Amino acid sequence: MQGVNQTVLHNVQKSLTVQSSVSKVECYVCGKGLEDGHRITAKTLSSGTVLFCDVHYSLQ
Fold it and tell me: Model's pTM, two decimal places?
């Protein structure tokens, strides 16, 4: 996965801090993603969690 963006939101009325992050969803093999019309599936490997498109997931 590439490029993680982080945002911190603060609700002044309740003093609640929420932290979230987002990453672009793309295939570990070819880099194609949802915007290219592919389905994306996460798979946990010994090296960590990786994402595969519908083309490359069927090969795993």
Answer: 0.59
